[in-house]
Amino acid sequence: MKYRISVSISEPILLKLKEKMRSERIRNQSMLIEQAVEKFLQ
Fold this sequence. Notes:
- The chain contains one helix and no strands.
- By secondary structure, the protein is mainly alpha-helical.
- The chain has one domain.
- The chain is rod-shaped and about 60 Å long.
């Protein structure tokens, strides 16, 4: 029973973490694209 409760509590936390990681990854990719564009323009 305890295990089930801890899982139900941690699930939204894990979902938030996943969402955060996804947005971080997208931001990193866009940064790389910006750098590539800057190099191309130079």
